[in-house]
Amino acid sequence: MSTLYDCAVPADRTSGLAAAAGAVRSGRLVVLPTDTVYGIGCDAFDAKAVRYLLEAKGRGPDMPVPVLVGSWTTIDGLVLSVPRQARALIEAFWPGGLSLVLQHAPSLAWDLGHTRGTVMLRMPLHPVALELLRDVGPMAVSSANKSGFPPAGTAQEAWDQLGEDVGVYLDGGPCTDNVASTIVDLTGPDPLVLREGAVPLADVREVLGIEVEVAG
To answer: Which residues constitute the domain of residue 51?
Structure first.
């Protein structure tokens, strides 16, 4: 049975975060607010839970699940190396609406889909999400919607699409912008913007000091 917790109520927030942490640790799915859109998430290192997440969304492993982290330093243990350009973007935009694609550490025992050795990382600017992430560690998190449908901007919208597939819903209020993150791929010889979203392309170019290209 699914439960929705109103994180605007202190007692519900405490109970909800505890329930969400328990769900993540037991391989179940949770819905959590972020600064962009609501996300559906699980333990990033639990391959079975990641499969449940993909099934709940109705999509396959060909679209890998991004990973959210609760601090800057967490990524040092997740990637092969953190290049200078990644550090600059992290300092400028984390926590916030910027996702970075990097080569993940080959020693990691996770299965996020067909990643080809890469991982997309972000640190969200939302107190509920950050508190949960700092408790349970890195989470595989995708937008809380069925594949092909609009991302959820509220916990209720997520519930309407995902229902009982998710055990715990954390209601952190409506997402103010409801805009997906900007994605910058740093796995090639030059940075490449895969998607322009919450962080404007001009801001990315200003921080890096180069004319960053856009995919497509």
So the answer is: 3-180
